[in-house]
Design brief:
Elements: H1 16-29, H2 31-38, H3 40-49, H4 53-85, H5 89-105, H6 116-139, H7 141-144, H8 150-177, H9 192-195, H10 197-208, H11 210-215, H12 226-242, H13 248-279, H14 283-311, H15 313-333, H16 337-365, H17 371-383, H18 388-400, H19 403-421
Helix pairs in contact: 1-8, 1-10, 2-3, 2-8, 2-10, 3-4, 3-13, 4-6, 4-12, 4-13, 4-17, 4-18, 5-6, 5-10, 6-17, 8-14, 8-16, 13-14, 13-16, 13-17, 13-18, 13-19, 14-15, 14-16, 15-16, 15-19, 18-19
Length: 429
C-alpha cells in the first residue's frame, strides 16, 4: 500500500520552505474552527441569536450535521477528479475564497432570532468549503515530505494551526470582547464586538494562506479538460469502491476513523456551548477556555509528532483517544468551575495528536496514485456520518434539557472507534 519509493527521501521539488509554507495553511485556516465553529461565534449564536442556549446548541449541532452530509457527498468525487486532473492548489484556492467570503457575511448576523436561519446557512456554507479545501491540502502532505518525517510534519502543522488559533483568539479577547472600548469603535449593544469575529477570521484565513500558493509546489496538470476530468475521476472512484476488498485495511481504518471522528467533531462543534451550559461560563471565560485549549492542543500536537514517527501513528491515535475518554468522563462528573479549569487543559493535550496522527496514518496507508481520492474517502469517513454525532447530541441535549446528557454520547463514539482501530495494520516504518 505504501509508496516505498518515497520513503526516506524528500520528493522532488519540495524543500524546507515548501514544507513551512504548507504548514502555514494550518495556521491560516485554524481561525475558522477556533473562532467560528467552536468558541466565539458558536457561543454568540447560542446565547444571543437563538431563542435559548439549549435550543441554540441543538440548532448549531444540526447545522454541523447538514454540512457534514454535503462534504460526505462531494468529498470523494472531488478527490478522484483532482487525482485525474493532477493539480490540487486551484481547488484549495477556490474553496478558500468561498470560506473567506462566508465568514465575512457572518458580520451581518444580529443578536435577534430573526437572523437564526441566516447564521446557520452561512455557517454551513463556510464549513463545507473549509472541509473540502482540507481534502486537497491533506493530500499534498506525502508528496512534499520525506516518508520518515510525515508524522512530524503533520503534527507540526496541527501545532502551528493551534498556535494561529491562539493568536487570533487573543486578538479578539483583548481587542474586542474583554474591553470597554472595542477597536474601531464597535457598538457592544449591537454585539458588533462579537460579530466582528467573522471578518477577522476571513482576513486571517486569506492572508496567511498565501505562502502555500506562493512557495509549495503542486503536481503538474495532466492536460485533461474539465469535462473529461469529471468523467474519468468519477469512473476511477467507482472502480476503487468496487475493489474495496483490495483495500480492506484502509477500509477498516476509515470505518474506525468515521466513528471516533464523529465524537471529535461533536466536541469541536459544541465545546464552547457545553462550557456555558454545564459550568456557567460567560463569553469572556469561553474565550479564555478557547485560548487554554489552543495552547495545550498545540503543545500536544507538536510533542506527539515525535511520538508518531517513533511508535507509529496508530498507537499515537489510540493514546490520544484514551486520554480524551478518561478526561471527558471526568468532566461529565465534576460540577464546579475549579475542576473544569483543572481538567480542560489536560483534555486539550489529546486533541491535536488525535487529529494529526490520523492524517499521517492516512498518508502512510494511501497508494501514491490514489492519494487525493483516498483523502477524499478520508474526508468521507469523517463526514459521511458526521451528522450522527451532532444530531444525537442535539437530541439528548434537547430531550434531557442538559448538555451533559448530550456530551455523554461523545464518549461512546470515541470508545467504539478506538476498538475498531485496533484491527488496522500500520505499514512498517
Amino acid at each position: 500500500m505504501a509508496d516505498t519509493g518515497q520513503r526516506g527521501r524528500r520528493p522532488a521539488g519540495a524543500g524546507r520552505r515548501a514544507i513551512i509554507a504548507w504548514c502555514f495553511y494550518d495556521w491560516a485556516n485554524s481561525a475558522f474552527p477556533q473562532t467560528i465553529t467552536t468558541f466565539v461565534f458558536a457561543t454568540y449564536f447560542a446565547t444571543e441569536v437563538a431563542e435559548n442556549p439549549t435550543l441554540g446548541a441543538s440548532q448549531w449541532a444540526w447545522a454541523v450535521a447538514v454540512s457534514g452530509i454535503v462534504v460526505a457527498l462531494l468529498g470523494p468525487p472531488s478527490g478522484a477528479i483532482a487525482d485525474v486532473s493532477g493539480r490540487r492548489k486551484p481547488w484549495i484556492f477556490g474553496l478558500t475564497l468561498l470560506c473567506v467570503a462566508a465568514c465575512y457575511v457572518l458580520w451581518y448576523v444580529r443578536p435577534t432570532t430573526a437572523d437564526v436561519l441566516l447564521a446557520l446557512i452561512v455557517f454551513a456554507v463556510a464549513s463545507v468549503a473549509f472541509e473540502l479545501a482540507t481534502i486537497f491540502y491533506n493530500a499534498m502532505l506525502p508528496e512534499i515530505t520525506p516518508w520518515a518525517l510525515i508524522g512530524r510534519v503533520s503534527g507540526w502543522g496541527w501545532g502551528l494551526g493551534y498556535a494561529g488559533g491562539l493568536v487570533c483568539l487573543l486578538i479578539i479577547l483583548f481587542g474586542f470582547v474583554d474591553t470597554e472600548s472595542p477597536l474601531f469603535g464597535l457598538d457592544k449593544s449591537e454585539a458588533e464586538h462579537v460579530r466582528v469575529v467573522g471578518p477577522i477570521a476571513a482576513i486571517w484565513y486569506a492572508l496567511f494562506a498565501l505562502p502555500l500558493f506562493l512557495f509549495t509546489p503542486d503536481r503538474r496538470a495532466k492536460g485533461i479538460g474539465p469535462a473529461q476530468a469529471v468523467r474519468d475521476g468519477l469512473q476511477m472512484l467507482v472502480r476503487s469502491l468496487r475493489r474495496i476488498r483490495a483495500y480492506a485495511n484502509i477500509a477498516r481504518y476509515l470505518l474506525a476513523r468515521m466513528i471516533y471522528t464523529d465524537g471529535l467533531n461533536t466536541l469541536f462543534a459544541v465545546g464552547g456551548i457545553f462550557a456555558v451550559e454545564a459550568f456557567g461560563l460567560e463569553l469572556e471565560e469561553v474565550l479564555k477556555f478557547g485560548i487554554v485549549i489552543a495552547v495545550t492542543a498545540g503543545l500536544g500536537a507538536a510533542a506527539f509528532a515525535w511520538v508518531d514517527d517513533w511508535i507509529g501513528a496508530k498507537r499515537t491515535v489510540l493514546i490520544a483517544l484514551a486520554g480524551l475518554i478518561v478526561i471527558g468522563a471526568a468532566l461529565l462528573i465534576v460540577r464546579t468551575q475549579l475542576w473544569f479549569w483543572i481538567l480542560a487543559p489536560i483534555l486539550g493535550i489529546f486533541f491535536g495528536p488525535a487529529q494529526a496522527a490520523s492524517r499521517s496514518l492516512m498518508a502512510r496507508l494511501a497508494p501514491p496514485e490514489l492519494r487525493t481520492e483516498m483523502f477524499g474517502l478520508y474526508a468521507f469517513s469523517g463526514k459521511s456520518t458526521a451528522f450522527v454525532g451532532p444530531f444525537i447530541y442535539g437530541v439528548f441535549t434537547y430531550g434531557f434539557g442538559s448538555s451533559r446528557a448530550g456530551m455523554a454520547t461523545v464518549l461512546v463514539f470515541l470508545l467504539i472507534g478506538a476498538a475498531l482501530l485496533l484491527t488496522v495494520r500500520e505499514p512498517r516504518h
